[in-house]
Design goal:
The protein has 452 residues and is an alpha/beta fold. It has 2 domains: 2-220, NAD(P)-binding Rossmann-like Domain (Rossmann fold), CATH 3.40.50; 288-451, Rossmann fold (3-Layer(aba) Sandwich). The protein contains 14 helices and 13 strands. It has an 8-stranded mixed β-sheet, with helices on both faces. It has a 5-stranded parallel β-sheet with strand order 10-9-11-12-13, with helices on one face. β11, α14 (422-428) and β12 (432-434) form a beta-alpha-beta unit. The longest helix is centred in the middle third of the chain and has 31 residues, at 222-252. 44% of the residues are buried.
């Protein structure tokens, strides 16, 4: 079996490697020439993916990368010529072998008005449609609203290929499930939800994924699979919002939210712990609920819980900055002109993924208030250009030493990386605002640490 995976980021690359480890030949496709070059040279650009594993699979001929989408099959003209000779394989791709499946793992961001941005998905569909061949399977893994696969993507593929989904080629949706930073999380062990455009499409998708994933979860159709993924992320977003709201309520009652959570999670049933923070981060939870809310409005439905949760979580960076202002005022300092070090740029502990990180919102708010802002993150040495925050591109992490840290008026802990020595931080920094409760176990001078 040979498959093509489009989009070699935090979702696509781990999936490529898992299929390749399972004996499947994998062609990784990406429009980023630097990624393609790095992978073919056996180099990794994602911290938790070892370069040695990539190099091993490349050398074994199980994995290669390219920016040429034509490799998934012949052109339409070539296809017509091939189908006249039934002794020849109908579609040829990497290593000169039949490409059985094309998995799409591209971003699904929001537009400025918080409407879904399907441009990456639809442009990918347009790119592969001219080369789509009879019998191939196309699977969308990118999180999106229910109906995307069987409506928008379906239409683009049929228009560009002249083939019919469910008849000439198979179409399915199988949402990605990644847990970066968790060493116990393995792609092969995470159950895979799959929904097909037709029963035959579902069977084709199960045949492909069974080569690499141990547990498959077939569902009624593509819409159900799309909705399941949104439920997973909406569930987290709503519960995080609840805890963020209760943090303020309990603080007003002189109750420590962290102590409350620690006590509540001892209940062996009916409770799952969620924790407060400076805002939502990552490509899923801050974005996906708005995909559902937008789609719900199209069918005349309201999503009050979802949208309220989004408002609460989006308000957290401003509340954190307000607490920092109070902490500085207690030392008779103003935020304007203050030197602030944001500790942690990645959205999650122990990873290098800074997509949608609340640290960017914190830095923007601080800069707007006249503060001098810098950051330290052992996993993100320099900020790459992003769609949302291009003005921070090229900014480098400061050095981690007493002289540097002590030179800031305050340190704002946004991400609790395990690699940071928080005892040293307590010694070096004159003022610490902690959004992650990481300083709770560190002995500090009274009044130095403020929770936010």
């Amino acid at each position: 079996m040979t498959i093509a995976i489009i989009g070699l980021g935090y979702v696509g690359l781990p999936l490529c490697l898992q299929f390749a480890r399972s004996g499947v030949r994998v062609l990784g496709l990406d429009i980023d020439a630097k990624k393609v070059s790095a992978l073919n040279a056996g180099r990794s650009y994602i911290q938790h993916i070892p370069a040695g594993e990539i190099k091993k699979l490349v050398r074994a001929g199980k994995f290669s990368a390219s920016a040429d989408f034509a490799l998934i099959g012949s052109s339409r003209r070539g296809h017509e010529a091939q189908t006249k000779n039934r002794s020849e394989p109908p579609h040829v791709g990497c290593h000169g072998e039949k490409v059985d499946a094309i998995l799409i793992c591209v971003p699904t961001p929001l537009k400025k008005n918080r409407a879904p941005d399907l441009s990456f998905v639809l442009n990918t569909g347009k790119s592969i449609a001219p080369y789509l061949q009879r019998g191939q399977l196309v699977v969308l893994e990118s999180t999106t609203y229910p109906g995307t696969t069987e409506n928008e993507l379906h239409a683009v593929l049929e228009k560009g290929s002249g083939l019919k989904a469910g008849k000439d080629f198979h179409l399915a949706f199988s949402p990605e499930r990644e847990d970066p930073g968790n060493p116990q999380s393995k792609v092969a062990d995470i159950p895979k939800v799959i929904g097909g455009y037709t029963p035959a499409c579902l069977a084709a998708a199960q045949k492909v994924y069974s080569r690499a994933i141990r547990t498959l979860v077939p569902v009624a159709n593509c819409r159900t699979a799309e909705a399941a993924k949104l439920l997973e992320n909406v569930f987290r977003g709503v519960n995080i919002a609840l805890i963020n709201e209760l943090k303020g309520v309990y603080a007003a009652l002189d109750i420590d939210i962290w102590d409350v959570i620690a006590a509540a999670k001892t209940k062996p049933f009916g409770f799952m712990p969620f924790y407060p923070g400076p805002g939502l981060g990552g490509h899923c939870i801050p974005i996906d609920p708005f995909y559902l809310a937008w789609r719900a409005r199209q069918v005349g439905q309201e999503t009050r819980f979802v949208e309220l949760a989004g408002e609460i979580n989006r308000a957290m960076p401003a509340k954190v900055v307000a607490q920092l202002v109070r902490a500085l005022a207690a030392r008779k300092q103003k935020i304007s002109g203050a030197k602030i070090l944001v500790l942690g740029l990645a959205y999650k502990a122990n990873v290098d993924d800074d997509r949608e990180s609340p640290s960017y919102a914190l830095m923007d708010l601080l800069a707007a208030r006249g503060a001098s802002v810098a950051y330290f993150d052992p996993h993100v040495p320099v900020i790459k250009r992003t769609r949302e925050h291009p003005h921070w591109a090229g900014t480098k992490s400061v050095k981690w030493n007493r002289k540097t840290v002590a030179g800031f008026d305050a340190v704002l802990i946004a991400t609790a990386h395990a690699a940071v020595d928080y005892r040293r931080l307590a010694e070096w920094s004159p003022l610490i605002v902690d959004t992650r409760n990481v300083m709770a176990k560190v002995k500090v001078v009274p009044g130095k640490v403020w929770r936010a």
